[in-house]
Amino acid sequence: GRFSLIVAFSPTGWTFGKGKKKSPGRRWQQGTIIRYEVPYSEHCSFTELREFVKFIAPTNIIPSVNNHGAESSSTMVSLLLS
After folding, report:
1. Which of 4, 35, 46, 77 minimizes the number of CB atoms within 10 Å of its CB?
2. Which residues form the DNA repair metallo-beta-lactamase domain (predicted)?
């Protein structure tokens, strides 16, 4: 295949709260696909998001929010990596 390992982060801020049984940072794996469920706040700053991207140093970023095509996707990735 195209990738030998895929690591994904699922923002799950809206599923965490009082009475919820899931724990933050839950890990799921099937073969070479690993997904982490992480609490996320839509109120974090863009600077915080950019610092997170810098910290995890991903090889590839695939935008899934406000992705309206190749040009907007490329712009978003460029901003995250700047």
Report:
1. 4
2. 2-68
Q: Do 9 and 38 meet the contact criterion of CB atoms below 8 Å apart?
A: yes
Spatial contact of 61 and 80, defined as CB atoms under 8 Å apart:
yes
Give the E-state strand segments of the chain in sequence order: 6-11, 27-30, 33-38
Task: Collect all residues with Cβ–Cβ distance below 8 Å to 17 and sequence separation of at least 6.
Answer: none
Q: Which two tokens stand for residue 18?
A: 């009082």
Contact 53, 61 (CB under 8 A): yes
Number of other CB atoms surrounding residue 53 within 10 Å: 15
List the chain domain ranges. 1-42, 44-82
